[in-house]
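Protein entry
_____________
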Amino acid sequence: KLLEGDGYLLQGDKKVMHMTSRFGWDPIAKQTYYIDFHGHDTVYSGHVTLKGEEYVIDFRGLIGDPGHWISHATMPTKDDYHSDMFQEKGGKMTPTHININLHRVPIKG
C-alpha cells in the first residue's frame, strides 16, 4: 500500500541532497497521495493521476517552496523514470527547464 523512494541527488559522484518520497493510497480522495522531502527544508505534497501510460503528479510546496507544480512522468522500463515539469506562473502551468531522468542503480556496500 506504500511505495517509498530514498536516495540522493548527485552531481557526478558528489551527494548534493538527500531525498525521500512516498506514494500511497488516499482513501478519502480516492487517489494516490505523494509526499516528497528534499533535504531538511523543503517538503512537497500532492496527488497522482494515471492518464494512459503517464503519471500526472499535481503537487504544492508545504515547507520551503510555496509553488504549485505538475510532473508528467513515464516509466519506459522498470528501472527508468522520465518526468517533464511544469510550474504555475501567472495562473498558467508553464514548462520549466526541469526534466528528470532517473535510473535505478544497485546500492554499493
Observations:
- The longest strand covers residues 14-26.
- Residues 76 and 100 are 13 Å apart (CA to CA).
- The radius of gyration is 14 Å.
- The beta strands are 2-11, 14-26, 31-38, 42-51, 54-63, 68-77, 80-89, 92-103.
